[in-house]
Amino acid sequence: MGWQEGKYKYEQIVHKVIHLIEYGTFRPGNSIPSVRQMSIQEKVSITTVLQAYYILEAQGYIKAHPKSGFYVNSILPGDYPEPDVSSPGSDPTRVSIRELIMMVLSEHLNTRLVHLGVAYPNTKLLPTEKLNRNLVRIGHRIGGESVQYSIPLGEESLRVQIARRLLEAGCAVVPDEIVITSGCSEAITLCLRAVCSPGNTVAVDSPISFDALRCLEALGLRVLEIPTHPRTGMRLDALRRAIEHQKIDACLTISNFNNPLGSCIPDEKKKEMADLLGKYEIPLIENDIFGEIYFTETRPRVVKAYDRKGLTMLCSSFSKDLCPGYRVGWVVPGRFKEEIEWLKYTSSVATTKLPQLAIAEFLASGSYDPLLRRIRKIYAQNLSALSVVVKRYFPDETRVTRPSGGFLLWVQLPDFVDSLKLYRSALQKNIAITPGYLFSATQNYKNFIRLNAANWSEEAEEAVKCLGEIISTLK
């Protein structure tokens, strides 16, 4: 039925607003005409408009903001169904995706491409100028000390700020329990080196970031992929069965807003995970790199908050929400601190001093929380807009995730699509995506792709439309 064909006036308004939302006139996060404006436009009573808006709100299309009006919801009804819980094999396997990773990375700096897949934040939203001014000002202030080595633990001023922020995630730690690293990847690598030897088995989410997989491959470790729910993360019943049937030397999870799924382990399940791994004395490497980019009312806690044995090593960085190029991350190593600190010293001595100090000053200034509030809102809107466009242009059998944080969308395409072939075809149209093969040691996700909503734009929307056209030719 067209929106003009409703039997009653309020039905016509309902259909009209839905039509305008689905075709992009009103995008997720946008305000819609006020009750009074719609009343004048449609020549109906305010009561009629209110009735229509209440129906739209009940159906999940809009949400009332007190004293502000009605806004299009970030997650819209009628979205594609989600991908099923993953079902990887039950045997550990060696990781061998190096060539695929390097192939995809080779295009990351190609400015001719529309980058729909790489997990980079939107640098236009980041406080680059302020951070760079901090660098210059601090360099002048401390003079020659600015080019001196830092200590393996990292600058105390930064560790203090991280410790304060961790209180929101449920963790009470002191600065000396934190080790600053050169990005989150180094933090994960140090943790794996501290508790594993070549040939050991690590249980991981499936799918999981290829950054994690490359760390595992480089260290000669075997991977046991654990079924993972697209919204609630690693299945603990599956993890328990795996532990009971074979030797697991460590576990690695992206607990909040998994890359690429966007899944977030509920807090009660995080406690269950900590208890389960504690019972069997299995170390956990917890990646919380997207933890600050949440769309819910409060920040999700971390598994580390429930760890009573010091087995959880919490890793993160400022790469997704502040300054990816500064390469500053950190780890709270628990009982493995002494070993991690030594490994940090023997691998790179210390993380560069000036970027640490610039970030510490930015955090101390109170500017970080307003920045996070802004990017959370924009990324939530961008993800919803991307989902709407995927729905419009991709085949009906497509499934997409519904992330409650981060800026990544995991897309399951029809079985006839090979994501590697799609990747190559898209490059010919100057579009770059990330094929699903990269997110599994066993290359399970041949008909999946990862899309990035951080840099959403009209150009990106046209690229998604073109991608849909390419997919239709692959049948």
Short description:
The protein is of the alpha/beta class.
What does this structure look like?
The protein is of the alpha/beta class. The chain has 3 domains: 3-72, Winged helix-like DNA-binding domain superfamily/Winged helix DNA-binding domain (Arc Repressor Mutant, subunit A), CATH 1.10.10.10; 94-124 and 370-472, Aspartate Aminotransferase, domain 1; 127-368, Aspartate Aminotransferase, domain 2 (3-Layer(aba) Sandwich). 40% of the residues lie in helices and 14% in strands. It is built from 15 helices and 17 strands. Strands 3, 5, 6, 7, 8, 9, 10, 11 and 12 form a 9-stranded mixed sheet that branches. Strands 13-14-17-16 form a 4-stranded antiparallel sheet, with helices on one face. A hairpin with a 3-residue loop joins β1 (62-65) and β2 (69-72). α5 (128-142) packs across α12, α6 crosses α12 and α7 packs across α8 (210-218). The model has no long low-confidence stretch (mean pLDDT 93).
